[in-house]
Amino acid sequence: MAAMGVLDDRVALVTGSSRGIGAAIAVTFARAGARVVLHGRDESALAEVRARIADLGGEAVSVTGDVTSAADLEHIRERVLDHYGHVDVLVANAGSSDSRPAPIEDITEESWRADIDRNLTGTFLTVKTFLPGMKQRRSGTVITLSSAAGRKPSERTIVAYAAAKAGVQVFTQDLAAQVGPYGIRANCLAPETILTETNRRWIPAEVQSTLAEAHPLRRLGTPEDVARAALFLASDDSSWITGVIVDVAGGAVLV
Ligand SMILES: NC(=O)c1ccc[n+]([C@@H]2O[C@H](COP(=O)([O-])OP(=O)(O)OC[C@H]3O[C@@H](n4cnc5c(N)ncnc54)[C@H](OP(=O)(O)O)[C@@H]3O)[C@@H](O)[C@H]2O)c1
Questions:
Q1: What is the pLDDT along the chain (255 residues), one digit of tens a residue?
Q2: 31, 123, 148, 249: which has the fewest C-beta neighbours closer than 10 Å?
Q3: Which protein residues touch ligand 1 with a CB less than 6 Å away?
């Protein structure tokens, strides 16, 4: 582990860090010196990420729970306080969708509510749970995860997921305005398609190539691309930046 990391002495909780983008953020933060709290629901996947961090000489513990449940989040908060006493960097990354693009009249109320819950309500509950501690300490940084889907419509858009992710952007900007006077910053990352293990498995190779061609930088993003942007927003290098939406998208979203 580097002797002088930009997150030395910071405690970072990364929700949804059992795999994908969250795992890359957690490993990157640990490399930068943070003590990391991993989170997810899959204990064995969490153990793998914990082992990767331990191999790097870093420090991580893990907690489990559903971010759509206020009770689970309260339990997570108690565990984190027991371990580390506070959180300096909160990354509300957990989110997903099982839905498919569909005409609005064909979207069931159940799937609409599930997408809003997992992505928008989960982000709200996560921030609500940890914000009082940050305000009390008058310091902290929050990073939320939106998506290119929430920046502009496309034929691949899952409308409820996109609406939830657009909601995450406005939520983050409102949060930034509210907590700035407490010395707390809040910013939002909006990735285009990222080659996570899940996307590598589910997006056929020829579709990956077509998608890559639609990016000015002619490739798809990696979890590490997002993690490096998260590291910048988590560190003091971005101390004058709050309330922004960062398109981590290889130029695919030019708004
Ligand atoms: N990958 C992309 O192309 C892309 C693009 C734009 C935005 N994003 C956003 O980036 C974030 C990470 O995406 P990803 O692709 O890395 O996802 P992923 O590989 O599917 O991993 C999702 C992570 O979130 C956790 N999670 C999901 N729902 C949860 C819930 N209700 N309660 C607790 N944990 C939950 C999962 O935990 P378990 O697996 O342990 O249950 C897992 O750790 C998400 O917010 C996603 O919407 C992704």
A1: 545 799 999 999 999 999 999 999 999 999 999 999 999 999 999 999 999 999 999 999 999 999 999 999 999 999 999 999 999 999 999 999 999 999 999 999 999 999 999 999 999 999 999 999 999 999 999 999 999 999 999 888 999 999 999 999 999 999 999 999 999 999 999 999 999 999 999 999 999 999 999 999 999 999 999 999 999 999 999 999 999 999 999 999 875
A2: 31
A3: 16-22, 40-42, 45, 66-68, 93-96, 118, 122, 145, 147, 191, 193-194, 196, 198-199
d(CA 237, CA 10): 14
Please count the structural domains in the chain.
Answer: 1
Catalytic residue among 26, 161, 185, 223: 161
* Domain extent for 80: 11-239
Residue of 14, 41, 63 to test ligand 1 pocket, by largest number of atoms within 8 Å of CB: 41
Contacts of 148 (CB under 8 A, 6+ apart): 190, 191, 192, 193, 247, 249, 252, 253
Assigned domain for 248 exists: no
For residue 145, the CA-to-ligand 1 centroid distance in Å is 9
Note if 161 is an active site residue. Answer: yes
Q: Assess if residue 2 is contained within a domain.
A: no
- CATH assignment of the domain containing 66: 3.40.50.720
pTM reported for the whole predicted model: 0.98
How many C-alpha atoms does 131 have within 13 Å on its Cβ side?
A: 17
Q: What is the residue with the minimal CA distance to atom 41 of ligand 1?
A: 41
